[in-house]
Structures are given as C-alpha cells and as structure tokens.
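wait is this the right file?? whatever heres the structure
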C-alpha cells in the first residue's frame, strides 16, 4: 500500500506543478488555492508512504515522478521542446526510480 500512496503523491506533485504555472506567481486566486490544496494532498500521501518505506527512496521517487510528469506535460501541453537530451535525462530519472523500487 505504501507504493500506492507514493504513486498518488507523485501524481499530485505533477498536478500542483501544473497549477503553479497556471497561478502566474500566485496572482490568480483559483489556481493558487488549487495548487496549495494539491501540494497539501501530495505531502499527506507522501507522509503515508513514509510509514513503511525509507525516506531517501520516498523522496527520490516522489521527485522523479514529479520531474518526469512535469517534463511530459510541458512537452505535450505547453509546447516545450522535445530534444534527445531531455528524453535521455528523463530516461535516467525513470531508471533511477525503477532501481530504487527494486532495491526497497
């Protein structure tokens, strides 16, 4: 169950980073409030996973999901560039996340 909590926490991290962009520096109230709520929910889910998984693993996986999700959203929805270097970078992040899962 701890890994499920961590997956949800990572997905919520992607949500809040998207909302952070949409908040325009916290100048848009609706997006700002939604962003803060998603942050809180993400941290709560992460705290649940920390009950059973090592802290270093949880934090690395959580940030890895957020980084990869943010990159994919940026490329797919925000028109950010898709380059070989960016794909290689996210592949390394995902490989690290997989290695941490195998090692836990």
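ok assuming it is, sequence goes like this
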């Amino acid at each position: 169950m701890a890994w499920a909590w961590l997956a949800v926490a990572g997905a919520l991290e992607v949500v809040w980073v998207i909302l952070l962009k949409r908040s325009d520096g916290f100048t848009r109230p609706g997006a700002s409030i939604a962003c803060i709520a998603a942050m809180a929910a993400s941290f709560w889910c992460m705290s649940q996973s920390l009950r059973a998984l090592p802290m270093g693993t949880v934090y690395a996986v959580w940030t890895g999901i957020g980084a990869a999700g943010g990159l994919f959203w940026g490329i797919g929805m925000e028109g950010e560039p898709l380059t070989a270097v960016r794909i290689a970078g996210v592949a390394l992040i995902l490989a690290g996340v997989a290695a941490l899962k195998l090692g836990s």
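Residues 61 and 98 are 9 Å apart (CA to CA). so i think its the right one actually
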